[in-house]
Each structure stands twice: as structure tokens, then as C-alpha cells.
Amino acid sequence: xxxxxxxxxxxxxxxxxxxxxxxxHAVMAVDIDExxxxxxxxxxxxxxxxxxxxAVCASQNDSLLPVLAADTSVICDGRILxxxxxxxxxxxxxxxxxxxxxxxxxxxxxxxxxxxWQALSVSEVRFRPLSHQEIVRYWQTGEPCDKAGAYAxxxxxxxxxxxxxxxxxxxxxxxxxxxAQLLSQAGIEVIQ
Length: 192
Fold this sequence. Notes:
Layout: E1 5-7, H1 12-20, E2 25-27, H2 42-60, E3 67-76, E4 79-80, H3 87-97, E5 101-112, E6 115-127, H4 132-140, E7 161-165, H5 168-172, H6 176-185
Parallel strand pairs: 1-2, 1-3
Antiparallel strand pairs: 3-4, 3-5, 5-6, 6-7
Main location: cytoplasm
Site (Important for substrate specificity): 13, 72, 154
Organism: Methylomonas koyamae
């Protein structure tokens, strides 16, 4: 089956989510500097990074297919937490999230035929209190190593989550409601 779009991401979770809604796609990961600018607001940050990913991907391929990119960040106390560098960093991140609410910002960027559309999803997640030992054991599973906020909502960390308000798929890394709306702008209907 021929691809309907190019996903500018190496994330297997984003690819799985697109498959979940029946979107055939090719994957073309791009490498950009994802360092936040000093004082950059979380929404502006994820929107900028998603837009840069889609722009770089669109410029590096000669396909006429639409290009979809996304960026997701975990925010606590207004601070972008990022991905953990090591066990100590994961302990710091997950201890900060323990027993508290935090936000997950997920931006989607779609480029097609000279047009650019973006959408933003913001979800609120509450963790139950976590012990130091739980955090260490969780790290040892390998799951949090490459995840924003040092956790995967769809994995083992699901047992940490007391509540979520917003988009489960957005917390995973690709908000499907917003993605489907953007795809319809490019003439790709999810349910046909």
C-alpha cells in the first residue's frame, strides 16, 4: 500500500498511533537541535520544534507527500523537564512529578503543497506518590530512558497515574484528535 504521508520522526509510538487510525506512512527521521531557547514558553517551544522538524524533513526529500512532525514535552512548575540523561536525572524528574500534577504539551506540524498547519494539545496528568525504590526499579526496566518526563504513559508508568485530563495519545506523543483535524486540511480523511 502506498504511503499517504511522511512521518518526520523515529518514534515508534508516533508510528503506531498513525497505524492505529489507519494512516499509511513512510518514516524519515530528522535531526535538529531541540534545546529550548532561554525563557521560551513551553507551548512556543513544542510548536517551534515540531515546525522545524517538518520543515527540515520537507526540505530533505523530493516526495510530494505531506510531512507530519510532532514534539512533546512534560512541564512541571513551568519548567520543561526533557528526557533523562541518566539514573540520577530520572530520579530528579520523577521525584518532581511524584504526588503532583504536571502538564504534557504536544504540538503537531503538517506541511503540504506550500501550506503549513499546526495544532497544540495540552493535557494534565497527576502522579501518585512514588518511592525512591520504585523510581530506581522503573529506571532499570529501560522504559524511561528516551521519554520526555522520564515515563511512558502507555507502559509500566501507567500504574503511577492517578488521573489524566486531556489527550492520552497526546501524552504518548501524537494527539490523534488534533492530528486528524490537520490531516483533513491536507485532504487525508481518517474515516473514509
